[in-house]
Structures are given as structure tokens and as C-alpha cells.
TrEMBL record:
Its main location: nucleus. It is found in: Chromosome, Telomere; Nucleus. Residues 1144-1169 have a biased composition (Low complexity). This is Telomere-associated protein Rif1 N-terminal domain-containing protein. It comes from Dictyostelium purpureum. Keywords: Cell cycle, Chromosome, Nucleus, Telomere. PANTHER family: TELOMERE-ASSOCIATED PROTEIN RIF1 (PTHR22928). The keyword Isomerase does not apply. Residues 43-390 form the Telomere-associated protein Rif1 N-terminal domain. Residues 1142-1171 are annotated as: Disordered.
Length: 1221
């Protein structure tokens, strides 16, 4: 630092000592003068070198800062001296040329040094405003006075290099530079460049100083700009001045003075000619840049004077140029032209001007194939949109929608399939479309976060941020705006863009959802009474339908499905419920015409129709995850208006019917049916409004619900059977059995308060019968399971006597009325016989003999399907009979279920050759079915017997119901029962006969049908049976065929059970491991107790017990350390079957009646006396049966079972020898 200080001090000392050197030139020796002048020159050079390094040398800067004012004082002396001698004549200067030369030289050294001082930041800090002002004035005077080219150049350079905070201080500077710009001193290119450079510096430091005179100096700048002979550096300097000025106007948002614009406009012809010269000389870029600078400051003047057409040829030529860079430059500069032209006018009101602006942009965006050019035109378009600020929505149809449609209405964009960007024919279109999507999102999305994200992406690309379109419009019609500008939203939502900044394929789903929400949000603010609202609603819904039809879903495209699910859900939620489901006087106006069918639908039906049809494109998992929740929400809205429940339900069922083609569609529709039924069930349970409806409307609702419950069966009947096990509608249907039952129960419980549900139950039964599902045997279990609650819920309160339970007022009133009008034995309900007949047909189809023949779902290992629901069905009928205790009901049942009863009486189980293919579980289920039917048969006849015993009518009365007419009706049933292979059935039939028809003692009114008489002839010699008036004369020779009589060819009543032959068909095994079968039914041991007061002839009592091998049981309790299986081994089963086949097929009858007639009493007593009764043996057997068996192991029980079979066979042989010898 000491060295710098000493050197600078030395320099300053030399300069200060020689300030008057030029004044001493005549008073000192010339040599000495030259020596001193050389020292001054050397000191200046040394100072200048220090000044060049001082910005980077802090120590040097510190030393110089202490001497700034002193140095500046030296500079002022030399510069002033030079300025003063400028007034000398040329003659005087020639005379003292050396002196004047040295003075100018010292002035130049001083200006150079001053320039460096003014450039250095340390100098600026030291100088005060007064000193700055003084220095400015000195430089101004020098520029204006000097006749030395170099002094002038360095003086101007001082203005260029100075770093004053607010620039030089002088009000005369604008005037000074106007002179410099109008006429360059010494006509020097160097000085001209320095003028432009310094002027640019001064403008940037304090532009306000020059704005008032802009109309004077800016045309001078343009004059220089349009010169053809400009140097490159001059061109850049001029462009820099204009760019800074334009930027200032843009930043401050101020208008160009009109006098300036019109003054520049006057030069248009001259300037246009020079621009054409530039174009012809291949300076197209400069030409379009100059044109843009010029037209920016013309502002609105060309449009006022209507001379804009004189200015447009230049950009038209450049837009059509084949050079990519020229096109890009043209679009970039088009921004300034649009901004300048719109700055001083209300652009939104000048349609022609807007059309002029968008013309080249629209053309380029539609036809250009270069990516960079397309981006440039897109950027210019965004720049134009920015000029409208918050009023953009007012000019949307002019400046936005047409261009946006041209951008997106490309096959590459709107096609539904995924296309990677690198495979698209025109990559420019793809990237442009992606940006267009973001643009629409950035200005319309209701979500601030989504808008912000889109704006940031666009700002990074185009440095433009647009104002958001408001959600509520104040000065225009919102419905008209949406209708007129809906196309951009549609195209954007249909597009399939992959975001370029994403690592994984993202099809802008969030952005598209926001676009759809943008429409819905603005639509929600429109008054629904607006005449354009309906048109908008129709347009939106039809677009949704088109969108769903065109969409192709891949198995793993969950994001796409989520997108469609979301926009569908948002649409539903945004529309008022009164419009969705209709209602009111103007509900008809909200009808939407379907694209495919051309039919009109209310909005909610339109939604349901499309969502159902859309589901056929989805996989089962996609349906479950995305479609079913949406369908359920639609149903909730659909049934929010109970008054219209019937119409809505009928419509949905109709849509499902129209789309039923095969088992694939059936599986999907069954899932929809499940959701629909569940919704209806909840509605019935929760809605109290339904009971307030008029009876006619309730009847319509009952009919609709009945059709809903019947739909699965109708669908099955109308669908061809498929062997594809991956699609099993039966499993879906079976899983909904509980739902089916609960819905039916709710319907009957709720609506029975106001009306009878019996017609609905009868309608369901009749429809099931009419469907004739003989080729869909795998559905029988479900069908029969649905019949059970139908039987349970049928109102039997009309039956005289102990009728069914009455749970509501309607049933109570009905019963009271029936009790008054109904006489004994009358049956007023004409519907119940039809129901029983329908049920009978169903039971016939469920019999194993029907299941064996040509079943397509079976293979060789499974001979037939076992219908598990037969057990609860028989039990339900039995319980109803026990509850009603009505002989009339029993007789109606026997009459109308004759065909099924005969079939189950004759064939209670398959032959051993068939059952051998079944496992123990299946055999056990057959046993349960057999026992449940026997229980039904027993209960039916027992009810008739008990009612006959307690009846008040005389047996010999003409009104006695067990007459010839009834006997004729029951003929086939009695024949079947008397010839049944099951002894319990025969036994109960005999008891029934003796207690009813057999009571016609000494009566000649009973006539026997011919077929029955044959059977009775065989029986009367073997068992004790009462046959009043039984002779050949009292046998009917001809009988009229009853309507419900079965076909004799189908069941031969005289054939033995053992003659049954298995058809040659392909059979397969059905896996049925349902352990609940054990709990479904516990067989009851029905004992027949004869009335001791009976008048029956005591010949032989009908008594028979089936061998134990006819029953199959499951052993479910595990015994520790027991290796035996839970059922009999295959070897044991084989032995038992062989034993059964070797037994006599004839029925054994035992005579154990305690009240024999007198003719047989002696013999019987004699027989009884022959054999002694061993009470010890009987007691021991009872103890084993009651106590000891429970503690036995499985193996022991199997052994005991085998021994018991041998004991039973031996007892049968002994009894046979005793009774029939």
C-alpha cells in the first residue's frame, strides 16, 4: 500500500506542478519544456494504467479515492484549456501549432483519465451531486465546442463509462443527444457508435429525462436503424436502445404518445421500402425485427388511419419463408406488434383487429410440422391471450376456441388408443397438444393447486402466465358461453397425452378431471330455468356417452377407469336431483336422446343405461372395484323418489334384458341385479312413504318388485348354457339366495299392511313354472330355495279354523270377512291351487329320475344332481299343514300336487347301481330328502284323519266329503301309496283309508274307480282294510280324465319299484361337502296310533319297517385313537347293497293288532301261546339302545351295525314263516 501511495502521490505532484506548463512555453527553454511535457505524459500514462487495475485492486482503489478530487481538478484545468482555445482562429493555431497540439493532447489524457475515474465505483462514492453536475457540464461543453475529433470521442466516451447512480445531472442532455443523433460529429462511424452506446447508457440510468422529447429523438433512432450501411455494432446498439425502451413501456404499462406514433407513421413508405431491400438482400431476420420495433411504436395509429394493410406485407412474407429460423423470429416479433396495437385500444371490442392477430397463428398451428416453429406460434398465441387479462372469457369464442380446436382436432390427439410420442407421425402436434391441455387447465380449473402447477409448467416453457377464467360470469350469459366453448374441453378430455416430464406414462388424468369439473362448476352456477341449460345438459351427457363408447380398456388400466369413474360421479353429483330423476310440470323437458337407440330418457335413466353398457368392457375385478360402487350410487339417487319407484325399476330391468346375450353378460348383469335388489330391499325397509301411496300405485310397485325377483330366472331361461366353468352364474345366484329371501320378506311384511301380497306370490310361482328351466338343472337348488319363502309368506288366513298367523290389520279384516261368508269345507282362494300345481311341476323336475337324463353339467362320475333344497321345501309344506290343521288345504294339496307326490311315493331313492357312485355325504342327503317327504305325506294324511274324526258331519250324511267323487280324485295317489316300496307310506295310506273311506259302513254310495279296485283286491286278502260296498257292481267302468292327472305312460303304477332301469347317459359327480346338511332336517319317527273306536275289520294290520341299510348316517364325532372312517367303508357298503338286492321285493305284513275279531281270536291266542316272551332279552336290547351305544368307538359301532342287520334279517324270516305259513 505504501508503494501505491508514494507512486500516486508522485504522479499527482507532477501533474499539479505542471498545470500551467502550456502557459510557460514562451518563457522557458524549448528543450526543458519538452522534458517537462514528457514527464506529464508519462505521469498520465502511469495514472491510466493504475486506473485500469483499480477495480480489481482494493489497496490501489483506497489510495486513489483519497486523491479523486485533486485529480479531477487537474483534468478540469486541461479540458477547460482545450475548450478555451477552440475559439482561436486557424491562423493562430497554425502559428502556435505545438502549443495547441500539446493542449489538446493533455485534454485527451485528462478525458481518458476522467472516464476511468467516473467508471470506478470508488469515485462515485466520493463525488457529490454538485460535483457530478459540474463534471457533466464540462463534458457537455467539450462535446459541443471541441473541434478535435478525438477529444469529442473521448468526451462522449466519458458519458458511456460513467457509473453515476442516476446518470449525469444536466437538463440539456436530451438536447445534446438530439443534435448528436441528427448529425454525427465529424461524420465519424466511431463517434456515432459511441453516441449510440452512451445514449443507451443514459436512457437506462434516467429514462424519465428523455421521455418528454421522445418524439424528437426516437425518429432519429429509426432513421439510423433503417439505414442499409449500418455496421453490425451499430445495429446491435440501436436494437438495444429500442428493446430497452419497449421493455420500459411494457413494464410501466404506459401508452406510446400519439404524436410520436403518427410522426413515425408518416415515414411508413420510406421505411417499408428499406425493409423490402433488407428482405431481398437476405436479411429477413433484421427486416422482421425492424418492422416489429417500428409497428410497436406505431401503436393503434395504423388502424385509426386504416393503413394497416400497407404494413402487413413484410410479416406475410416472413411467415411463409422456408427458413425455420425466420419463421420462429417472425412469430416471436409478432407478439410485440399485437401488444403495441392493442395497448391504446379496447381490443375485445375490435373483432377485425383480433382476427388479424390470430390469422397467422391459426394457420401455423394447424399446418406447421416443425416443433420449434409450432412452439413459437403457440407462444405468440399465449402472448395474445395475455393481452386480454381478466376479460379473456369475453373474447373466448374468437381468439381461443377456434385455434384450440385446430390444435387438438387431430387424429393423433383424439384417438382413443395409447400412442407413444416417438411413434406419432407429427411429433410437433403431440407436444403442442400436451401444452394446449395444460393451457386450458391453467385458466379454467376450479382447483387453485392444479392451476398453479399448470401455470408453472407453461411459464417455464413460454414465460407467459394467463389470468384465470372466472367461475361466475357477470356480463355475459354463462350457458351461452359454455355451449359455444364446450368443444375445447371435449377434445382435451378425449386426448391421450403422456406428460413429457413424467417418468411413468401419465395421461393427464388429474388435469382432465379438473377440466370436466371446470365445466360442471360453471354449469352449477347457471339457473336451471335458463332456456340454454337443457341444451348444455344434453350436450354434456351425450358427450359422456360417446366417451364411454369409444374408450378401450386394457386389463391393467386402473388409472383410466378411475378417471372415467370420477368424471361420471362428479357429473351425477353436480346435477340437481329434481333434474336427474324428473318430477314437476316441466320434467319432460329434461329428456336426453340416446345416440344409439334414438329414444328419450330422463338424465338418471340415461346415466344408468350408459353405465350398464359400459360395464361389458370391463373385467370382473374392474367391475367390482370401479363400476359397482358407481352403479349403487346411481340407484340411491334413482329411488330417492319413492313415488316413481315402479317406473325406475321397470326401466333398469328392461335395460338388463336388452343386454342379455350369453353367460358372460349374465354373470355381469347378475352382479348388477344383486346391487339393484339390495338397494330395493333397503328402500322397502326404510321408506315410510310407500305405505302412503294409493292402492293402484302399490300394486304397480309389487309387480315391479316381483319382476325384479324373477329377473335372474328369466335371464337364465333366456341364456344358452355354456360349459365354461370360469363363468358360473349359478354360483353368483346361489350366493344371493339370502338377499332374494330378505327382499321378498320385506315386500310382504311392509305392503301386506295395505294390500294382499298373495297375487304377487302367485305371479312369481306361475312365472317360474312357465319358464320351463329343464335345461338349467344346476339352478334348481336356487329355484326351490326361493319357493320356500314364497310358501311361508303366502297368507292363509282365509282358511276356516286354525289358519295361518295374522300379523297385520289387512289380514285380520280379511279373515273376519271370510269367517262370516265361508262354510265348512269351502275354499275361496282360487290362486292357491295354481301355486301348488306350479310347485308340483317344480318338484317333479327336481326328482332324481328327472335329473339323471341328459344333464349337460354332469360327467361319468356323477349320475345326477342332488337338490339340497328339497328337504327344507318338504319341511316348509309340512309345517304349513301342521299350522293350519285344515283338511280342505290338505285335499287341495293332494289334488294339485298329485304328479309330484306320486313320483316321490314311487321312487324314493335310486337303485344301488346308481347310489354306489355317491359318497356318504350325498347318500345321507338322499336319506334326508326321503325322510322329509315321508314326514310330509304322514302329516297330510294325519291332518285329514284328525279332521275327519272331529268333524261334526255324520258319516252317513250326503255331505260327507270322503265320497265317490273324492275317491276318484285320489285314485292314482292311493294306488301309488299302496304299491310304494316305502312301508311307512303304505302304512299311513292304509290307516288313512280305514279312517276315511273305510268308514262308509253299510253304505252303498261309495263307488270304486276301476284302477283302484284292482289294487284293493290284492290288498284285501293280505291286510286289514275296510272296503264298504266293495263288489264288481260298484266299480266304475269309465272315468273322466282330470285336468291335473299325470300321464300314465310316464309312471306305471302297477310296476314294481325294482323294475326301475337307469338310462344310458353321461353322468358326473357333483361335489357337495356342505356339513350344514346335518342340521337342515332331523327325521321324525312318526308312529301310527289307531283309534280304538274304529270299526275297521280286524284281519291283518298293515305294518312294515325298512331295513337299516336304507338309511345313511354321517358320523361327525371323532374318537381318539380310532382309525375307522366317519362312515361305512366301501367294502361294507358293497355287502349291504348285495344284501338288499337279495331280499324279497314283496312287502311283509305283520299281524300285531291287539283287537282281533272273534273268528281269529282263538288262532291268534294259540299262536301267541306257542312262543314265550323273554323280557330279559328285550330289556337288554333297550339298554344297549338307550345307554351303551353312545360310548362305543366308531369301529365298534360299525360292527354293531353289521350284527344288527343280520338280526333284522333273521327276525324278518321268522315273522314271515309265522305269518304266512
Amino acid at each position: 500500500m505504501n508503494e501505491y501511495y508514494l507512486n500516486i502521490s508522485k504522479i499527482l505532484k507532477v501533474l499539479e506542478q505542471n498545470l500551467n506548463l502550456t502557459n510557460k512555453v514562451t518563457s522557458i527553454d524549448i528543450n526543458q519544456h519538452n522534458r517537462l511535457f514528457s514527464q506529464v505524459e508519462e505521469s498520465f500514462n502511469e495514472l491510466i494504467n493504475y486506473l485500469k487495475d483499480c477495480e480489481e485492486n482494493e489497496a490501489l482503489s483506497s489510495c486513489l479515492s483519497n486523491s479523486v478530487l485533486k485529480f479531477i481538478n487537474v483534468f478540469q484545468v486541461h479540458i477547460t484549456s482545450s475548450n478555451n482555445q477552440q475559439s482561436q482562429s486557424q491562423k493562430e493555431k497554425s502559428k502556435n501549432s505545438l502549443l495547441f497540439s500539446q493542449i489538446d493532447k493533455l485534454a485527451i489524457f485528462s478525458l481518458r483519465s476522467l472516464g476511468y475515474f467516473l467508471y470506478s465505483s470508488f469515485t462515485v462514492k466520493v463525488l457529490m451531486d454538485s460535483q457530478v453536475k459540474e463534471i457533466t457540464k464540462l463534458i457537455e461543453n467539450t462535446i459541443g465546442i471541441t473541434k478535435n475529433k478525438n477529444i469529442c470521442n473521448y468526451a462522449i466516451w466519458c458519458f458511456s463509462s460513467q457509473s453515476f447512480q442516476n446518470g449525469p445531472i444536466s437538463t440539456k442532455l436530451p438536447e445534446t443527444y438530439i443534435k448528436l443523433l441528427s448529425e454525427t460529429p465529424f461524420n465519424s462511424k466511431t463517434i456515432e457508435s459511441e453516441i449510440l452506446n452512451s445514449f443507451n447508457t443514459l436512457l437506462q440510468q434516467n429514462i424519465q429525462l428523455y421521455l418528454d422529447s421522445i418524439q424528437d429523438w426516437l425518429p432519429l433512432v429509426f432513421n439510423k436503424l433503417f439505414r442499409v450501411e449500418n455496421l453490425i455494432n451499430q445495429i446491435e446498439q440501436l436494437k438495444e436502445i429500442l428493446c430497452f425502451l419497449i421493455e420500459y413501456y411494457q413494464k410501466k404499462n404506459i401508452s406510446v404518445p400519439e404524436d410520436l406514433s403518427f410522426k413515425l407513421l408518416e415515414c411508413r413508405q420510406e421505411y417499408m421500402q428499406k425493409l423490402e431491400i433488407l428482405l431481398k438482400s437476405k436479411n429477413e431476420v433484421l427486416a422482421i425485427q425492424y418492422w416489429t420495433f417500428y409497428t410497436f411504436f406505431l401503436a393503434n395509429a395504423p388502424f385509426v388511419d386504416r393503413v394497416i394493410n400497407q404494413l402487413t406485407p413484410i410479416p406475410e412474407i416472413s411467415f411463409k419463408n422456408d427458413n425455420k429460423l425466420i419463421k420462429i423470429e417472425s412469430f416471436n416479433n409478432w407478439k410485440l406488434f399485437m401488444e403495441g396495437a392493442s395497448r391504446d385500444s379496447d381490443l375485445k371490442k375490435e373483432k377485425k383487429k383480433m382476427q388479424l392477430f390470430i390469422a397467422p397463428l391459426s394457420l401455423s398451428l394447424a399446418t406447421e410440422k416443425d416443433v420449434d416453429v409450432k412452439k413459437a406460434s403457440f407462444s405468440s398465441w399465449m402472448y395474445l391471450l395475455k393481452q386480454f387479462k381478466q376479460s379473456l372469457y369475453e373474447v373466448f369464442p374468437i381468439v381461443f376456441t377456434p385455434i384450440y380446436v385446430n390444435i387438438l382436432k387431430k387424429p393423433n390427439f383424439s384417438k382413443s388408443q395409447q400412442t407413444p410420442p416417438n411413434e406419432i407421425e407429427n411429433i410437433a402436434d403431440y407436444h403442442l397438444g400436451e401444452n394446449a391441455l395444460l393451457l386450458l387447465v391453467s385458466i379454467t380449473s376450479p382447483s387453485q393447486e392444479v392451476r398453479k402447477s399448470a401455470k408453472q409448467k407453461l411459464q417455464a416453457l413460454y414465460d407467459v402466465v394467463l389470468e384465470t377464467i372466472p367461475l361466475v360470469f357477470t356480463n355475459i350469459n354463462a350457458s351461452e358461453w359454455l355451449l359455444g366453448n364446450l368443444e375445447p374441453f371435449k377434445l382435451a378430455i378425449q386426448s391421450r397425452y403422456i406428460l413429457s416430464d413424467s417418468n411413468t406414462p401419465q395421461f393427464c388424468f388429474n388435469e382432465k378431471i379438473e377440466l370436466w369439473n371446470a365445466i360442471l362448476k360453471r354449469m352449477s352456477n347457471i339457473d336451471t330455468k335458463d332456456e340454454k341449460y337443457l341444451l348444455l345438459l344434453k350436450d354434456l351427457l351425450l358427450f359422456l356417452q360417446q366417451l364411454f363408447e369409444q374408450m378401450k380398456i386394457e386389463p391393467d388400466e386402473d388409472s383410466t377407469l378411475f378417471f372415467y369413474q370420477t368424471i361420471y360421479k362428479n357429473t351425477i353429483q353436480s346435477i340437481q336431483s329434481s333434474i336427474l330423476i324428473g318430477g314437476g310440470s316441466d320434467s319432460n323437458q329434461y329428456l336426453i336422446k340416446n345416440i344409439n337407440s334414438g329414444k328419450d330418457y330422463i338424465p338418471i335413466d340415461f346415466f344408468i343405461l350408459n353405465i350398464i353398457e359400459f360395464g361389458f368392457k370391463l373385467t370382473s375385478e374392474q367391475t367390482k372395484e370401479h363400476l359397482l360402487p358407481l352403479f349403487e350410487e346411481l340407484l340411491t339417487i334413482t329411488f330417492s323418489k319413492p313415488l316413481d319407484m315402479s317406473n325406475r325399476l321397470n326401466f333398469i330391468i328392461g335395460v338388463m334384458n336388452d343386454n342379455l346375450d350369453n353367460e358372460t353378460t349374465l354373470c355381469y348383469l347378475l352382479r348388477l341385479w344383486s346391487i339393484l335388489t339390495s338397494t330395493v330391499h333397503k328402500l322397502i325397509e326404510r321408506s315410510h312413504v310407500l305405505l302412503t301411496l294409493p292402492p293402484t300405485m302399490i300394486d304397480c310397485i309389487l309387480e315391479s318388485i316381483s319382476n325384479l325377483l324373477l329377473w335372474p330366472l328369466r335371464a337364465v331361461a333366456g341364456t344358452p348354457y355354456s360349459s365354461d366353468n370360469s363363468m358360473d352364474p349359478c354360483k353368483i345366484l346361489t350366493s344371493n339366495s339370502k338377499l332374494w329371501k330378505n327382499t321378498l320378506q320385506s315386500m310382504c311384511r311392509i305392503f301386506s299392511i295395505k294390500t294382499s301380497t298373495n297375487p304377487s306370490i302367485g305371479y312369481i310361482f306361475q312365472t317360474i313354472d312357465d319358464l320351463q328351466l329343464t335345461n338349467h338343472q344346476n339352478y334348481y337348488d336356487f329355484i326351490l330355495a326361493t319357493s320356500i319363502p314364497l310358501l311361508e309368506l303366502y297368507d292363509l288366513s282365509f282358511i276356516n279354523g286354525n289358519g295361518a298367523s295374522i300379523t297385520n290389520n289387512y289380514a285380520n279384516k280379511r279373515k273376519q270377512k271370510n269367517m262370516k261368508n265361508q262354510s265348512e269345507g269351502e275354499f275361496e282362494d282360487a290362486q292357491l291351487p295354481k301355486i301348488l300345481s306350479n310347485l308340483s311341476n317344480l318338484l317333479v323336475n327336481c326328482h332324481f329320475s328327472k335329473m339323471i337324463s341328459n344333464n349337460p353339467i354332469l360327467n361319468n362320475s356323477q349320475p345326477f344332481l342332488i337338490i339340497n333344497s328339497l328337504v327344507p321345501c318338504f319341511n316348509t309344506i309340512t309345517n304349513i299343514l301342521k299350522k293350519c290343521k285344515s283338511s280342505t288345504l290338505c285335499l287341495v294339496l293332494l289334488e294339485n300336487m298329485e304328479s309330484s307326490l306320486i313320483l316321490y311315493i314311487k321312487d324314493t331313492k335310486p337303485l344301488p347301481s346308481i347310489t354306489s357312485k355317491l359318497d356318504s355325504q350325498e347318500k345321507y342327503q338322499l336319506t334326508l330328502i326321503r325322510d322329509s317327504f315321508i314326514n310330509l305325506w304322514d302329516t297330510t294324511l294325519e291332518t285329514l284323519i284328525q279332521n275327519n274324526i272331529t268333524t261334526s258331519s255324520s258319516i252317513n250324511s250326503s255331505n260327507y266329503k270322503y265320497n265317490s267323487k273324492l275317491l276318484e280324485q285320489l285314485e292314482l295317489l292311493l294306488i301309488s301309496a299302496f304299491t310304494s316300496p316305502v312301508n311307512e307310506i303304505k302304512e299311513k295310506a292304509l290307516y288313512f283309508w280305514n279312517e276315511t273311506f273305510g268308514t262308509h259302513i253299510n253304505s252303498k254310495s261309495l263307488e270304486y274307480p276301476s284302477k283302484l279296485s284292482k289294487t284293493l283286491k290284492k290288498l284285501k286278502d293280505q291286510i286289514s282294510i275296510q272296503l264298504p260296498n266293495f263288489n264288481d257292481d260298484n266299480i266304475q267302468q269309465q272315468q273322466t280324465k282330470r285336468p291335473n292327472e299325470i300321464n300314465d305312460e310316464s309312471i306305471d303304477l302297477d310296476e314294481s319299484y325294482d323294475d326301475f332301469v337307469l338310462p344310458n347317459s353321461q353322468l358326473k359327480k357333483v361335489n357337495n361337502n356342505d356339513n350344514k346338511l346335518l342340521n337342515q332336517y332331523q327325521p321324525s319317527n312318526t308312529t301310527v296310533n289307531y283309534n280304538p273306536n274304529t270299526n275297521a275289520n280286524n284281519k291283518k294290520k298293515f305294518k312294515f319297517s325298512d331295513p337299516p341299510t336304507d338309511q345313511y348316517v354321517l358320523i361327525t364325532k371323532q374318537v381318539e385313537n380310532d382309525a375307522a372312517t366317519q362312515s361305512m367303508t366301501d367294502h361294507q357298503l358293497e355287502i349291504y347293497e348285495q344284501q338288499k338286492l337279495t331280499r324279497n321285493s314283496s312287502t311283509s305284513f305283520s299281524n300285531n293288532n291287539n283287537n282281533n275279531n272273534n273268528n281269529n281270536s282263538a288262532n291268534s291266542n294259540g299262536n301267541n301261546n306257542k312262543y314265550l316272551q323273554d323280557e330279559n332279552v328285550l330289556g337288554l336290547i333297550n339298554d344297549i339302545k338307550n345307554k351303551l351305544l353312545e360310548n362305543q368307538s366308531t369301529q365298534s359301532l360299525l360292527q354293531i351295525q353289521s350284527v344288527s342287520i343280520e338280526i333284522t334279517n333273521k327276525i324278518n324270516n321268522i315273522l314271515s314263516n309265522r305269518l304266512y305259513k
